[in-house]
Each structure stands twice: as C-alpha cells, then as structure tokens.
Design a protein that fits this description.
The complex is a heterotetramer of chains A (146), B (782), C (177) and D (291).
Chain B: H1 20-23, E1 40-46, E2 52-58, H2 60-63, E3 68-73, H3 74-79, E4 84-86, E5 92-94, E6 100-101, E7 107-113, H4 116-125, E8 127-132, H5 139-142, E9 160-167, H6 169-178, E10 181-192, E11 201-206, E12 212-216, H7 221-232, E13 239-242, H8 258-270, E14 274-277, H9 280-286, E15 289-301, E16 307-317, E17 346-354, E18 361-363, H10 371-388, H11 393-400, E19 409-410, E20 416-417, H12 422-433, H13 435-447, E21 451-460, E22 472-473, E23 476-477, E24 480-486, E25 492-496, H14 505-517, E26 524-528, H15 546-572, E27 579-582, E28 585-588, E29 591-596, H16 598-607, E30 619-624, E31 633-642, E32 649-659, H17 666-685, E33 716-720, H18 738-754, H19 769-781
Parallel strand pairs in B: 1-14, 12-13, 15-18, 16-17, 25-26, 32-33
Antiparallel strand pairs in B: 1-7, 2-6, 2-8, 3-7, 4-5, 9-17, 10-15, 11-12, 11-14, 15-16, 19-20, 21-31, 22-23, 24-25, 24-30, 27-28, 28-29, 31-32
Helix pairs in contact in B: 10-18, 14-15, 15-16, 17-18
Chain C: H1 2-7, E1 17-24, E2 27-34, H2 39-46, E3 65-68, E4 71-74, E5 87-89, H3 102-109, H4 119-132, H5 138-144, H6 156-168
Parallel strand pairs in C: 1-5
Antiparallel strand pairs in C: 1-2, 3-4, 3-5
Chain D: E1 7-9, H1 14-24, E2 28-31, H2 37-42, E3 50-53, E4 63-66, E5 69-73, H3 78-83, H4 85-90, H5 92-98, H6 104-107, H7 112-117, H8 125-132, E6 135-140, E7 143-148, E8 153-155, E9 158-159, E10 166-173, E11 179-186, E12 196-204, E13 210-218, E14 225-226, H9 228-234, H10 241-254, H11 265-287
Parallel strand pairs in D: 1-3, 2-3
Antiparallel strand pairs in D: 4-5, 5-10, 6-7, 6-10, 8-9, 11-12, 12-13, 13-14
Helix pairs in contact in D: 9-10, 10-11
The chains are: A alpha+beta (146), B alpha+beta (782), C alpha+beta (177), D alpha+beta (291).
C-alpha cells in the first residue's frame, strides 16, 4: 500500500538530512517499543514490537540506505520479519529549504506478505499509514526541539 | 442385465455400503488416527514471500524451545541429495530450498518435536532472512521478453515450459475462413483447490530391519512406493506404503508433497516414527492446484447452424514447476476431448505452459486430466454460437450432436468414442425440467424486466486411463489389477490396485465379484491400499477404478470360473463341454436341476483331487489393460434467477441426466453425481485462489476459499440413460467426475442467457455477485 | 508417549497447565492439560477418541463438532480448560450398548456419507438439531447443518438422512415436504 | 495450527476478573466465547500472556426487560438471542441478526458481549446495537460506566474499552408500539463476513410518520458505522419509496469500505444503498404491524 505525507520544520535542511541519516535517532521516533543499532554507515538493524489492538508481534527489522543526496533526498529500505510474515517498506524523503524552514515530503510503498497479508490484512490495514504519520510527526518535534 | 436368478448384492442393486459400519461409529482409520509409541511431530516453516533469496536460516532459538528435537533445512537435505525431487511430469521440485523460494507458503524448514504444540512453537522460533525478488503471477507477463527468469537452476533462458499441439492446423485455418459464421471468445478458468475435508499427511516409521513404512494420504500407493524407491535409493521391497481411510481425494492426493519427504527424512534421522499433518492454510497455499488455463477459442458454423471447425489456443500457468498429474505423453492431459459431443470435421488445439511464482500443480479437481477445461470451453462456445445464430440452444445441440449410429466415433483430434446417445440424454433432461414451459416463463419475465436464465451443458467425458500403448505415468503403464481368492468355505477375499477415498469400493467391487462368481457380496471382502498385500496398480483418480480395476476384478473372476467349471464337471460327472455357467451356477446343459454352486466347487477345489493337469485352490490375478477409454456423457439443464440490483445468482433448478453405461450400484452412483455437481457448482459460483501483485495467496483459509454449505448448494435433480460401453467387460464406464466436468458450463450458460438483454457474451468464473452486477451495470451505462 | 511429554509444563515461570474434570460420553476424566490444549486435541490425543476430526483450523468446516452440555460446538475452536466440569459427547458416544443411534442408522440407510470424514461432526450437529426440532423442513435442515462442510455428498443424502432419523425417532412422518 | 501457551484464570466474580486484567496491564484478554480470539491465537496473530475466562462468573447470561429496557447479559450465547421468544416477538432486528452471525454451530458458543466488544468491523451485532441506540455497561477498577454503542468503536479492533475493563451488559431501549426493525446481510456464503449488511430500526409516531430512526452498517468501514445523516433524514418522514431511496444514498455516502475479494469500493457502496432501502422497507412494514 502507498503511504505519503509532508511536514515543514523550522530547521535547516542539513539538520533534517543529518537526522534521518542517523538510524538510531530516526527509529527512535517509533511509538512502539523498539531497539535499533547501526551496523555501518548504510545499514542498521533492530526490533520493534508492534501491531494493532491485541494483534501484536515483535518484528526483526533490517534497514539500509539506498540513496543519500546531501540535504535534498534520502531513500531507505526497511525489511521486517515477524508473525511469520514480512513487512517491507521503501521510503523516499525529499527535502527543500526555504526561508529558514525545511519542507519534507515523504512517500513509500509498504508490502505485506505472509499471514499478516493473507489473514491479518483486515486488522492491520488502515493502521500502517497512521503509524507512519506519527513517526514523521515525532521526527518533526524532535528536530524542532533538538 | 436382469438374470432369471439374481445373486444378492450383484450388479445393479442399490445395496447399502459395507464401509459405513466403521465411519458412522467414528472408527474410521485416517492417517491422523495412526498413533505409534514414541511418535514425533513435524511442522513446517513456510515462506511469506512469493519470490526471494533465502539469505539465512537460524535454528538456535527453535532448538532451544522445550520439546523441539530437530530443525531440518534444505542444506541438510542437500547433503543427502534430497533437496530436490522429480515431479510426475519429470520436472524438478524443491523439497526444501537451498537458495530461493518460488511461491508464498513454500516449505522452508521442518521442525520436529515431541508434540504438535511444541513443533508449532519451534516453527515460530526459526529465524529466516529473505531478500525479496521480483514476483511474476501473470503467465502472459512471464512470457514477455525481458521477464525475470525463474528457473535459472535448470539453465532456462525464459519462463516457457513446453508447447503442445494436436489436430490439423492448416485445414482448421481453411475451414474457419470458409465458415459463414465464426465466433471467438476468451475464457479464464482460475486456480482452484480440491480441499478435501481431510488435509494431507503421513506417518513415517523405520523398523529395526531398516524397513520404511509410510501411512500416507495417497490415491496411488503403489506408484508412490516406486517413486520413493527411485528418489531415496532404498530397495523397493524395504518400502511399504499404506493408504488407510482417506478423507476425500479428488486428485489432490496424487502428488508427492515435500512434507511427506521431510517426514521420512525426519524418521530416518531420529529413528523414531514421525507424523506430519498439514494444516488448512498449508493445504491451500502449497498443495497442487487445479485449472489455471487461459483459453482463446474460435468456432465456425454454416449459416443454417452446422458446426464446421474449432480452434483453441491456451496458456497454462503451472506455477514454478510442472508438477501436473498427467499421463506422460499428454502434458495438457486429455484437453483434446474439447470437440465434445459434436462431429467437427476439423479442429486444432495448442497449449503453451509457463512458469510463475505460484505453487506447482496442474492436478485434477475431481476431473480426469484437463477434461473440465475442455468440456467447459466447448459447451460455452456452443451456447454462444446458438445465441449468435438466434437458435434455441437445445435445438442447436440436437441438430449438431454425433448421432448414436456413428459410434464408435473417431473425433477430429484422435479419440475413438466408445458409445453414446447424446440426443437421448438431452431430451430426457428437457422433459424432466419442463424446458418449453421454462422458456415461456422466461419470455414473460423478460417483458417485466426480470432476469431469468436457462443453461444447457451436453458434455462428453473421457475416463478410465488407460490403454498401455498411450498411457503411462513416469513410464509405468496405466493398467490396473485385481487378485481374487475363494476360500474353501466359499468366502472371498479380493485385493485391488486402486484406492477408495469415499467412492465405496468395498461395496461396488464386491458387487462385481458377486455378479461374476454367484456369491453374495456379504461374503466378499475387499482390500486396497497396502503395497505389501495388494497387487500393483496406478490408483484411483480420473474416474479410472471401475474401467480398470473393476474390469480386472471381472476378468479375474472369469479366470476362476474357467478353472471352477472343470471342477464342477468332475463333480457332476460330465465332460467340461457339457457344463455351462447359468443363473450364477454351473449347470449341466439342458439339465438345470443338475448344478453346483461356486461355494460347492470352492470346497471341492481344496478337498478333492484336482482334475487332470489342474492345480488345487481357487484364485486368480488379472492385470487389466483396457482396450480403450470409456466416454460417459450427460446433459444438464440449469435455471437461474438473478437479483438485478445486487448481482446475486440463485440456481432455481438443476436437472442432471447422466449416462455412465451399466451401473453397479445406483444409489452410490447417484451420490457420486450429487457430490460431483456440487464440485461443479463451487468453482462456477464461489471458489478461486487469486494472487495479488506481491504473490500473496488471497484465499489461504476457508474464510476466503469458499466451499459451499448446504444452504448455497442447489437441490440437485438427477436422471439417467444407459448406453453400455462395448469394450468394458460388463459395459460400465467411469462416473465419479462427470458431474464436475459438466456442471459449470450449464450454470454459466444460464447466467449469460439471463443477461442476454445486456449483450454480455462471457463472465469468467466464479460468478461472484460483483462480476454479475458489473456486467449488468456497465452495460446499463453504455 | 508424545502426549504425556506435553503434559509437563515446558515454559518456566507462569503456570501453563491446569487439572480439569470432564465427563466424556458418560465417563469422568481428571486430566492435567496445558492451558492452550484445544478440546479436539484433548479428545483425539489424550482420550484417543479419534472419531472427532480436524478439517480447517478456522472453525468453518465443523468436522470437529462435538456436543458440550448437549450443544454442538467446534472443538478445534475451544480450549480443553473451557469444558472443565462439563459434559462432552462425541460420535463414539452415540451408540449405546451396541445399538446404533437412529442418526447413525439413517446416515447408513440413506447413503448420507462417502469418505466419512465430515460424518461424525455432521451427525453430532444433526442429533442436536433434531433434539430441538423433531420435525424439521428441508430448509431448516440445510440451515441447521450449514456449520458443517461436506465435499463428497452434495448434502442431498445428508438431508434425507436427517429426515429419515426424524421419522425413526417419532411415529409421525418426517417434515420437509 | 496451535496457539502459544498462556496463563489461564477462571474468576468467579466480575471484580476478580477486573483485578486480574489490571494486574496484567494489557497483556491479558477476556475469554468469553472465544470464537474469534482462539482462532487468532491459533494463527499466532494474537499472543496474550493470559486469558481471563469469564464463563465461570454466574448471572452474566440473561435476556429480560427491566426498567424500560431490554437487557442482555454479556455471556448470552448469540444462538440464545435467536431462540428467545421475547426477542423474536418484540425485537425482530436482533432476531434477524442472530440468524446471520457466523454459522449455527459458532453461534452456540459465541457470546453477545464478545461480538460487540471484539471491535471486528465484520461482526454483525455492533451495527445492530448502533441502530437500536443501545448502551454497553463497562466495568473497571473505578466502577461501572455506560457507553453508547454509537461511541464505542474507534478503529478496526480498537474500542473505548480499556485493557482492565469488562463489558458486562447490553441495554436496549424497550420496544414500544409502532417500533420495527430489520437486519439484512449480503454474504457470499453462510459463515462469511458481510459484503455489506444493514440494520434499520424505526419508530412510528401517532401520525404514522417516522419519529425515530437508526441505521447501522456492517463491514463497510474500519468499524461498524452509524449512518447518522440517513437516520436523521428519515426522522419525520412518512417513509415513501423516495424517502427510503434517499436514506440509501445517504447511508452509501456514510460507508467507507475497503476493497477485497467481495468486491471493490464502488460495488460495496452500491450494496449499502440497495440494502439500506430494502431493509428500511422491511423495518417499516414491521413497524406498521406486518411480520
């Protein structure tokens, strides 16, 4: 499914860019219980316990930066495994700075596979975009306050 | 058939089933009921991805789960050269992956534990990393240049598996050109799944002597034993396959599935018995599918409605490997029965097969090899042609049928139909349903804007594979067998090479022997399914049991009769030439009061000195190689009402007239037809396994794979005509699948007949409310 | 045996087993089971009453139907601990003293079964249906058994069998016409 | 398909159950009929640390009229709803629905409380309770509160019910003369979730015009939906064909279906339109004294 959104933040594009290149800072914006660490400059991994209502599971997540264009664009892939299923996301972030503000547009495709897709979709659909939206809202607040 | 003196439980009698005694008491013995000391349980890790590289499988956490004893991966199997196995079509199939997974739900690892719950815990604890790869679910895209190649392991450069064609291409081309009327239609017959209520499973045990015994949900135990021997290298005499009671087969229990092999490996490695029973999701996502044919058909006719030629081009989606259960000479099965009940002068059929990221298969769904696809296509096309020519579909068929006097009939695509009376069956069906009144009612309703439709299907089946010259599976000829033994007290034990899955063989085979031996069927025991005791046979599928093993039973009985006649002559103190078999006993010609029953002869066979040059005892074996297939047929008429606003279809009446030659047990045949009709209705109206772009199976449980309940299932009305098979020992034909083959077209024809005002010429099955609604309302808009 | 091994709690810490008293086909059993043990596993693997079958895992097919306190339920969708102190009847409890229950006779006489796999669940549902409605119409029977799937019979002869059993258990003629 | 292990408690009182839920801080689930929950646990999509089985709590299964309400205990099996003479005689909407939930065998064990509190948009009773203007009695550590059904559902499987609360009773305004209701479910087969299903409850005033209308929708959105605009529109109308069509249009506008194997969004919205009109007509006929 497609997810998309944008926000404006009172910060230089370089700061926003740097924030999203730090996987720990970035993943720390997840509401659900999580633990992440960097493997190298382009790869990170960790776990997040997430779900909707009582349908919850711990997902092992592997992340990799597919593209980095200083201060203007970041592409990151997340591969999650849990509940015998796969949750994969390709996220594209586009940054543009104007008058001391940075506008960030984010969009991506989320692919569900396995039981979560075939048996649990009735439960999880509708929550994926909510979780993404809150992730970026948390990011905005952190960048602004930080 | 009527004998002046009938034998109890002979051919043609509706006796009650012997096997019921255990089933109604809950004492059936299905694979999951097998319980052995120290038995372990196997559960399977399955891939969530339809196509991915398996980058790592970590066992540690699973092995730490209490009760988990072992985790088996493709690497483990590769060490024993068992990571891959051959399919019935001589393609190759993964048991467990060493590199890539090719479809969602594919077996990725096996977990062996002391009970099912611990095994499930272990499955949840195995950590597998995947790198997703591009997914192909559309066979047309699979064949496009530049499409990712799935079977690089076979050194393939594209996803094309094979091309197969039959018929006269040029003559068909010419005939179509010269036809006054030519119609063309595309049909997609989607993936469906037999979903017998019992899923697949096995219990594998290796004894102290190193002998492997496998209790297994299989329709073909002997062939499985040979395949196991060839794949594992174990001597065939050290392998015993036992097919106990089977909870429905319908074709789904013909193939060898990875779970069976992993269970055997687990038993060999742990030294303990191992049980594997698949859950329903595993069953629906990884067991062999049926259908998945994309068909394009062209049909020609003269202006006055005489059919001239048929051309069919088909793309077959086989998933990631060709694991179809077909006779090896026929990669598209018996699809070339597609000229159906009509004497086409010429026809041409071609089929191409493609690999996709779906489970393997191409097995039957209660239908002999691809016959439903064929019958559906021809009966849909004939109906469309009748509508196109503004002729009544019944009249149109009566005008075009192969006439009774034309049998044996050689079809344009190379079959020799044994016997038939197609007009007889259709006329009977029309009388039963009151065809003319229904047409009147329909005209009324149309005036009022109500949607009512009447559909016909006059199908010809082709079953009983098959003659050795044409039919083999992995090289094994498709004969079948019977071994009949009469005990001194005149009681009978017979063993056959087939395997009942609900068809009632313990009753019907006993009836055949009762008729042939003059011994009450109560005194005849039937055994099947144990490869250590039963004679070799190819098993039960494709409606072949009665045409092959049933025939073998009759032939073996006749061998016994020939021997017994000499003993009877000795007892009656006459020359063998003066003895005849009449009224189920041996009589001195012209002196009926001087006679001996088979029981009397049997006793003598063991207690007196045998006639000169004859052995003691009274038994015989027959391996029957049928001279031809049998061609049952029927005419079905369906009447539907459609809710215009919602697209919901209600089958108001459905009349089925079947002709399967001489009937052994009318009640059992009726039951087979009821079930077959329901498995024709289901794919026509409800069942489908759709895949999304990610390759997710969208019908992985009975929540989405829609088996009809007693509420949706129409109230079937059945009738019969009897046209014996001229070549079968007692004139019988197969019948188990006729109704599944014939029913879908009747239902779809009825719906499209109702929608005629909207100019709709096709809706692909299943006819969901949404599809029917769309057909109505898109035309409204237009 | 595997099932005994399953009895001892494996996961350390929280108590995950329980001792239950269940009366099955008139015999009272006291058993210690894992909390998570499904009723169908308890019947099939602990008590070895294998006439109750598993067909779908998702409470659609009804092959696992048994009577709990006289009411048909799907035993693959119920925990053994839930029937603590209750009465359970399975297909093995239908016949009494070697005498078949009328529903068993009727399924046999009307050819209401083929492969036999759905039959026990189908019969248990039918028994309860007739207890509530001794003279059901065909449509009442079809609705009443719509929680049980059969792949072999097309339901025609199952409906006849239930009507036949209704006629057997009363002097009046069966309904449905 | 076997569930992971869990702790199991069978409290004898509601207070005890609440205490146990409170202790487990969101890691425990109430087990009523379990006809949805146990399936999800077998699929291992749900893995609660503990189950609190409320079936041993006495006096939670009843259907009766008291102080101008129909009250239904949370543990009442949905099959009992369909068998209750009181419900069949005076609450035809509920009688209709009781015959449509899952299948007859599942209804024998599934409960009214479980059906309304699970939060599954495919469950049939939530829309019925919205149409009827029902209230749910919810008990927690701080005592009991009453939540209108129309405000109970927040998102798929998400309700206002807190992890330490139990839904113990459904309270429905007592049927009055001139009231009538109906529930229609379009399903692909018995046991399926609705393609679209509609609950309509109408009350006629002295003049014979509609003075009370409630319309609820099943499985055409993330939760059951109260079609407020359609309900308000019918209030004060006489219930002409045009009125009912308009109500159907408004209900269709209120629906927010997801596409699935049952069909795409536009089809489902159209089915809401059709079935709202048809169901309202049936409800009206019943309100006017028909069957």
């Amino acid at each position: 499914m497609h997810i998309e959104g944008d926000f404006r933040v009172r910060a230089a594009a370089s700061r926003v860019y740097a924030f999203f290149l730090d996987p720990v800072a970035f993943t720390d914006c997840l509401d659900d219980p999580h633990e992440f660490h960097a493997i190298d400059a382009d790869h990170f991994e960790g776990t997040v316990t997430t779900g909707v209502a009582f349908i919850r599971g711990t997902f092992r997540v592997r992340g990799s930066y597919l593209a980095k264009t200083p201060t203007t664009a970041v592409r990151v892939r997340l591969q999650g495994a849990g509940l015998g299923s796969g949750v994969d996301a390709d996220l594209e972030l586009a940054l543009s700075e104007a008058a001391g503000e940075t506008a960030l547009h984010w969009q991506g495709e989320v692919h569900l596979s396995g039981p979560v897709a075939t048996l649990g979709e009735r439960m999880v659909r509708g929550t994926v975009d909510k979780k993404a939206a809150s992730l970026f809202e948390n990011a905005r607040r952190k960048i602004e306050s930080g | 058939m009527a004998q002046p003196e009938t034998v109890h439980g002979g051919i043609g009698q509706s006796i009650l089933r012997k096997e019921d005694a255990r089933f109604i008491r809950g004492k059936g013995n299905y694979v999951d009921d097998v319980d052995l000391p120290g038995m372990l349980f196997l559960d399977l890790v399955r891939s969530p991805y339809a196509h991915a590289k398996v980058t790592s499988i970590r066992k540690e956490k699973a092995l730490a789960v209490p009760g988990v004893l072992a985790v088996i991966t493709g690497a483990d199997l590769a060490a024993a050269k068992l990571a891959w196995m051959p399919t019935l079509m001589s393609d190759t199939q993964m048991v467990l992956p060493t590199d890539e997974v090719m479809f969602q739900g594919q077996e990725v690892a096996g977990v062996v534990a002391t009970d099912r719950y611990a095994a499930a815990d272990g499955v949840a604890a195995v950590e597998v990393d995947y790198d997703p790869l591009p997914v192909i679910v559309d066979p047309f895209k699979a064949l496009e240049p530049g499409a990712p190649v799935l079977r690089t392991d076979k050194g393939k450069k594209d996803n094309h598996i094979w091309h197969w064609e039959v018929g006269d291409k040029a003559a068909t081309e010419k005939a179509l050109k010269e036809s006054a009327v030519v119609i063309k239609e595309r049909f997609y017959i989607p993936r469906i799944h037999v979903s017998s209520i019992e899923t697949c499973g096995c219990v594998a045990q290796v004894d102290a002597m190193g002998k492997l015994t496998v209790w297994m949900t299989t329709q073909a135990p002997h062939a499985i034993r040979t395949v196991f021997a060839l794949v594992s290298g174990l001597p065939e005499n050290q392998i015993r396959i036992i097919s106990p009671d089977i909870g429905g087969g319908f074709g789904g229990k013909v193939p060898v599935y990875p779970g069976y092999v992993i269970a055997v490996v687990a038993a060999l490695t742990t030294g303990q018995p191992v049980k594997w029973v698949e859950d329903r999701t595993g069953n629906l996502t990884s067991d062999s599918f049926a259908r998945d044919y994309h068909i394009e058909a062209e049909m020609g006719a003269t202006k006055d409605g005489k059919l001239t030629a048929l051309r069919v081009k088909t793309l077959a989606d086989h998933g990631y490997t060709d694991a179809a259960a077909n006779p090896s000479k026929f990669p598209a099965g018996l699809f070339h029965i597609i000229t159906g009940s009509y004497p086409f002068a010429t026809a041409f059929v071609e089929v191409d097969a493609a690999y996709t990221n779906k489970p393997p298969g191409g097995i039957a769904y209660r239908c002999s090899f691809r016959v439903t696809e064929a019958a559906y296509t021809i009966e849909r096309m004939v109906e469309n042609m009748a509508h196109h020519l503004k002729m009544d579909p019944a009249e149109f068929r009566l005008k075009n049928f192969i006439p009774p006097e034309a049998f044996p009939f050689n079809s344009a695509l190379g079959w020799t139909y044994d016997s038939g009376n197609y007009a007889g069956a259709l006329k009977k069906a029309m009388a039963m349903i009151g065809y003319d009144d229904l047409r009147k009612e329909q005209a009324e309703k149309r005036r009022k804007g109500e949607l009512m439709g009447i559909g016909i299907s006059s199908f010809t089946e082709i079953v009983g594979a098959g003659p050795a010259k044409q039919f083999d599976i992995l090289g094994i000829k498709m004969f079948d067998s019977a071994e009949v033994r009469i005990h001194p007290t005149g009681k009978v034990l017979a063993r056959l090479g087939t395997k009942s899955q609900g068809q009632g063989h313990e009753t019907t085979y006993a009836q055949i022997l009762a008729e042939e031996l003059g011994i009450s069927s109560d005194n005849i025991s039937i055994e099947e399914g144990d490869t250590d005791t039963a004679p070799y046979g190819l098993g039960t599928y494709a409606s072949r049991s009665t045409p092959t093993s049933g025939a073998a039973a009759a032939m073996a009985a006749r061998k016994i009769r020939a021997k017994a006649a000499k003993i009877a002559a000795q007892m009656l103190e006459v020359s063998p030439d003066d003895v005849e078999w009449k009224d189920h006993k041996f009589q001195v010609k012209g002196v009926p009061e001087k006679s001996k029953t088979m029981a009397e002869v049997a006793f003598a066979a063991y207690t007196t000195n045998p006639p000169e040059g004859q052995e003691s005892g009274l038994e015989a074996v027959d391996y029957y190689n049928p001279p031809n297939l049998t061609f049952p047929f029927g005419s079905y008429i369906c009447a539907v009402d459609i809710d215009k606003e919602t697209g919901q279809v209600k089958v108001r009446r459905f009349v089925a007239v079947d002709d399967c030659g001489v009937i052994i047990n009318p009640t059992i045949v009726d039951g087979q037809i009821h079930g077959g009709l329901t498995m024709g209705f289901a794919p026509a109206m409800m069942e489908e396994i759709p895949y999304d772009a990610e390759g997710n199976n969208r019908a992985g449980s009975f929540l989405e794979y829609l088996l009809p309940t007693a509420v949706e299932t129409p109230k079937w009305e059945t009738g019969k005509t009897t046209t014996p098979s001229p070549h079968h020992p007692f004139g019988a034909k197969g019948v188990g699948e006729s109704a599944t083959v014939g029913a879908p077209a009747a239902i779809v024809n009825a719906v499209l007949d109702a929608l005629e005002p909207y100019g709709v010429t096709n809706i692909d099955i299943p006819l969901s409310a949404h599809k029917v609604w769309k057909a109505i309302h898109s035309k409204d808009a237009a | 045996m595997a099932i005994d091994a399953a009895d001892t709690p494996r996961t350390p810490g929280p108590v995950t087993t329980r001792t239950i008293q269940v009366t099955v086909n008139g015999v009272t059993h006291s058993s210690t089971v894992q909390n998570r043990m499904l009723l169908v596993s308890y019947l099939r693997e602990r008590l070895r009453l294998t006439g109750t079958h598993i067909g779908c895992d998702t409470a659609h097919c009804g092959a696992c139907t048994v009577l709990v306190d006289g009411v048909p339920v799907k035993s693959c969708n119920l925990l053994a601990v839930q029937v603590d102190g209750r009465q359970v009847q399975t297909v093995e409890g239908l016949a009494s003293g070697g005498k078949l229950h009328p529903i068993q006779e009727a399924f046999h006489e009307e050819h209401g079964l083929q492969c036999g796999y759905c039959t026990p669940g189908m019969m248990m549902t039918s028994v309860a249906l007739l207890a509530r409605n001794p003279n059901p119409t065909e449509d009442e029977i079809r609705r009443g058994i719509s929680g049980n799937l059969c792949r072999c019979t097309g339901y025609v002869n199952i409906v006849k069998a239930v009507q036949h059993a209704a006629a057997k258990t009363q002097t009046s003629v069966p309904g449905g016409h | 398909m076997y569930p992971p292990n869990f702790e199991y408690y069978a409290p004898k009182t509601v207070q005890e159950a609440i205490g146990l839920l409170d202790q487990h801080q969101g890691e425990a689930k109430v087990l009523a009929g379990g006809q949805s929950l146990i399936g999800m646990m077998k699929l291992r999509l749900a893995q609660p640390a503990a189950l609190i089985d409320i079936n041993r709590i006495p006096d939670l299964a009843y259907i009766r009229e008291e102080d101008s309400s129909l009250v239904i205990g949370a543990l009442t099996r949905t099959a009992e709803l369909g068998r209750s003479d009181l419900v069949r005689a005076r609450y035809p909407l509920l009688a209709d629905a009781a015959g449509e939930i899952a299948d007859p065998t599942v209804r024998n064990w599934g409960t009214v409380g479980g059906n309304v509190s699970h939060g599954d948009p495919g469950n049939d009773l939530p829309a019925c309770m919205m149409a009827l203007g029902a209230e749910f009695r919810v008990e927690g550590p701080k005592g009991a509160r009453a939540v209108p059904a129309r405000q109970f559902y927040q998102d798929s499987f998400v309700t206002v019910l807190q992890p330490n609360e139990v839904l113990t009773q459904v309270r429905i305004p007592q049927a009055v003369p001139g009231a009538g209701g109906a529930y229609s479910k379009m399903e692909r087969k018995v046991g399926d979730f609705a393609t679209a299903a509609v609950a309509v409850q109408l009350g006629l005033g002295k003049s014979g015009s509609i003075d009370l209308a409630g319309i609820g929708l099943t499985n055409v959105g993330p939760t059951a939906i109260f079609a407020s605009a359609a309900s308000e529109f019918l209030t004060g109308k006489t219930g002409t064909d045009a009125d009912l069509r308009r109500a159907g249009d408004l209900a269709a506008d209120a629906s927010r279906p997801f596409p699935d194997n049952r069909g795409p969004v536009e089809f489902k919205k159209e089915m809401v339109r059709v079935w709202t009109r048809r169901t309202a007509a049936r409800a009206l006929a019943r309100a006017r004294g028909g069957k």
